[in-house]
Structures are given as structure tokens and as C-alpha cells.
Amino acid sequence: MIVPNVAPIFGREKIKETAFLKAHSVFYKLANRNYVRLELNQSLNQIATEFETENNGIQMIYLDANFPFIDGFPLLPHLSHNDGKKVDVSFIYEDPNGNLTNKKPSISGYGVYEKPTEKENDQNMVCKQRGNWQYDFPKYLTLGKINQEIEFSEIGTRELANLILKQNSVGKLFIEPHLKSRLNLTNDKVRFHGCQAVRHDDHIHFQLK
Q1: Which pLDDT tens digit goes with each residue over 3-16?
Q2: 3-state secondary structure string across 137-165
Q3: Deepest of 62, 167, 190, 197, by most Cβ within 10 A of its Cβ?
């Protein structure tokens, strides 16, 4: 009752859920990890609406966003979710028949990776060889793997990423380098997050300018 009324003082508000925009788990809401700036809230809803219009019934699923208070207060284990400008969203998946689905492969929404093929750049290996042992740590944070019949949808995830990149308010999008190439994401907003972070082949991170 208190937090949602105080958060606007810090320039943040709850993510406004709709039929097309949902949290992956009630945990993110109960833990107050679902706060963003007004501009990001507007972009999330616009992206989700446009995506559902093209893909009837398929939702945009968000994961960690930010805490409601105080710029610089860390949202562990993330390095940068501390100012209301960042949010993680799930990849899009498809069922065995090739139809897009709202199902996801882990209980937490994190930790099930769309790994590089033998011909793709293995950034995880590069970072761990440099001593960044934490790079694939989220594999321990799945809380359990589920829906093992579903597969990563290149078409659906590419479409979602391009809708995100189309937003003028968005400054950066982080995704693993091999997926950037596989999905042919050529926009300058698509960046590598660095070996000091964790791998991004289980979700998309994007943020305001």
C-alpha cells in the first residue's frame, strides 16, 4: 500500500501489466523488482501491444526491472538495474509444431541458454578464459527447468527485439553476440554488455537513453 505511492517521488512506478504484458513470476512483483520510469513503462506497453497485434495471444514477459527507490541502489545480481531505466524481458519460444507460445523454459525465467553453435562466437568461453567466472552463473538460478518441449524462436525473438529497437526512448539493447549475429540485429543500439556482467542468451536487456 505504501511503496507504490512513494515510488513516484523517486521518478518510478510499477510496470503497468495488461493482457499483453505480464511478469514471468509473481516473485518479481512481491519483491518490488518491477519498478521503472514512466517513459520505460510507456515503451513496454507499446512494444507489448504491437507484438501481440502481429502474434495473436502472445505476451511480452518481463523479468527483473528495478527497485522503487534510490538511484544507485543495486538490484542484485545485476550490475546496472539501479535507476529505473532498465528491464529484462524473456525470449520468445515455440512449441513442437512451430507455433509461438507463452511458455518459458525455467521457473525463474533465467538460466536456460540458447547456446552458440560450433560455427558461432562463444563469448561465454572467451569471458571465462579471461577469469570472469561469474559469466554463466545464472545457470544456477533457474529454480528448475520446465516446458522442455519448447524451443527458442528465432522469428519471434527477432521481431520482439526489432520492436524494442524501434522505440526512440531506448538507448541500448544487450544480447549475446552469437544471437545478435544469428538474428541479424544490425541496429547500433545492440551492444555487448562486457565480461564483467553475465551472459545474455537467456533474456534481452534493454534500457532508456
Answers
A1: 988 899 999 999 99
A2: HHHHCCCCECCCCCEECHHHHHHHHHHHH
A3: 62
CA 112, CA 144: separation in Å to the nearest integer? 10
CATH code, domain with 118: 3.30.1380.10
- Per the structure, the complete domain to which residue 143 belongs is given by 3-208
Q: Measure the CA–CA gap between 26 and 38, rounded to whole angstroms.
A: 21
Query: Are the CB atoms for 29 and 63 separated by under 8 Å?
Result: no
**What pLDDT, on a 0 to 100 scale, did the predictor assign at position 1?**
80
Answer yes or no: are the C-beta atoms of 61 and 100 closer than 8 Å.
no
- The 10s digit of each residue's pLDDT in 113-123 is 999 999 999 99
* Cα torsion 26, 94, 136, 189: sign: negative
pLDDT score, position 102 = 98
What is the count of structural domains for the chain? Answer: 1
Question: CA 25, CA 75: separation in Å to the nearest integer?
Answer: 17
When pLDDT is averaged across residues 18-46 and rounded to a whole number, the result is 97
Q: How many percent of the chain have pLDDT more than 70? A: 100
